[in-house]
Amino acid sequence: MIENDVIRSTIPDPLHEPELYAAVLANQIHTCNSKCQGPAPPGQLCKKGFPRPYSQTTHYVENECRYVYRCLTEADSWVVPYHPAILLLWDAHINVQYITDKGFARYMTKYITKREPSHVFNIYENDSLEGTCYCATT
């Protein structure tokens, strides 16, 4: 998969892949905000790892249990990894990455135990602006 560049993190050539180029610019460019505690001071990375370091290749980093993605230019350093076909179909932000066994276990544990945003819905009151609870009783 790596040899075939299945997951990319570079800005496509606008002449050869104009649709993908537009999709990457519209959906895959990281902008630091409060979620990533950025922007980071010069020379440092935000919580999400941006700007990414330059790299000629996508490769596995053994002691960090993660992959470093190809990053050739400053513009590439802000691109969130993506799968071209999925991005074109989805037409929205999507973060696709190679994972390791340890990385997969950590990711699944994080999201299985993640709390749902309780402030979005008020299930105890019938407030149409916050959500309605329809409970079945037996």
Present the secondary structure layout.
Blueprint: H1 18-27, E1 59-61, E2 66-68, H2 84-90, H3 101-112
Overall geometric form? globular
Low-pLDDT stretches are: 132-138
Give, in order, the helices and strands: HEEHH
State the total count of DSSP E strands. Answer: 2
What distance separates the N and C termini? 52 Å
The main β sheet shows up as: 2 strands, antiparallel
Separate helix tally: 3
Structure, described:
It is built from 3 helices and 2 strands, in the order αββαα. It is mainly α and about 140 residues long. It has a domain of about 80 residues. It has a two-stranded antiparallel sheet. The longest helix has 12 residues. The chain is globular.
Structure described in brief:
The protein is mainly α. The protein has helices at 18-27, 84-90, 101-112, and strands spanning 59-61, 66-68. The chain has a two-stranded antiparallel sheet with strand order 1-2.
List keywords for this structure.
mainly alpha, 2 strands
